[in-house]
Amino acid sequence: MTDQSQRKDDMTEHMDEKPNATQPESASEETRGTASEESPEDSQAPATPQTQPAPVAPLENNVHSCALVIEGGAMRASYVSGLVNVLLEQGIYFDYVCGISAGSVIATNYVSRDMARTKRSFVDSAANLQAGGVKTLLNRRGLFNASYDYLGCIEDDSTPFDWEAFQANPARVRIQAFQRDTGRTVVWGRDHMQTPEDLMTCVRASSAMPGIVEPIEVDGQLMIDGSLGAGAGLPNHIAEDDGVERLFVITSRPAGYRKQELSTMRRRAVIRMMKDFPYARNAMLTRPERYNEELLRLEELEESGRALVVRPREMPVTNTTRDVKELEHAFLLGHEQGIAELPRWREFLFGA
After folding, report:
1. What is the SS3 assignment for 223?
2. Among 24, 69, 73, 44, which Cα is nearest to 277's?
3. pLDDT for 241-260, tens place per residue?
4. Cβ atoms 225, 277 nearer than 8 A
5. CA torsion 324→328→329→333, rounded to 10°?
6. Helix, strand, coil shares of the chain as percentages rounded to 5?
7. What is the pTM of this model?
8. Phi and psi dihedrals of 53, rounded to 5?
């Protein structure tokens, strides 16, 4: 599914575009404040010394040569957030983190080491009427209010993001999205994350599933959900392309899960919705088959000892669940599972 020859330099963060296997069926060739006036009194007042906040000391990581890989799944990420918070509570810090879609949200929260935000993003935020729902869906902006969910909630401080901690963490970060009009998979690194706005633009682009989150333009291309690109939603290929051989993978689907082929009605809906975008249309139509292929590949990595895969014991919510109590329950189940599996995690990561 991915071009293994396109390795990224371990010492340099950069954007990597890779063709994926989502060629449109009709394609003929292969394409993978205004300043106020000063009063006299103000002009005579002594200047107040300006103090800058002390820079955050560089954070240290203790898991090397092993990637933290996080699958998406929209509100199923409430369960995954519980698992990830166990890593943070236990001081397990990876120096390589990658994610797709909702997994990119969790990845950035993890890198900033913010346990409160990790939970809030997929549990408490559902109670905020500005975050989305029927109103935004009826206004054809998707089920989630993208303009609020990524930047607006930071600006109004309802879901603040610790940008200083994110910057202070030297971990490599990778986020994947998909160019709607070219069919190309794009993987961003820190060179595309120079400001909080840049970072949240990458995260929003990675999460922009058609019909659920509005697409967003980045570098002159309209971007949609990264799970439509290479890997079909499982981001282990990102780390492998970077030369990371050992993977700690957290999925949002239980063991034995396989995507079912789209029903006739669903296929028609996709074709109708994406009729003007052949690459995106074909990516959506072929995703079940491609995702299942990646699951087999992940199982092979697991059997060879190169990957530890953490799968939810159960998944009590769907990708569109908005009930806070149900999301809280999912989070607690994930956290409970993480605590129970800690010995297995530690053995894989630290050999003890």
Report:
1. strand
2. 24
3. 999 999 999 999 999 999 99
4. no
5. 150
6. 45, 15, 40
7. 0.83
8. -65, 145
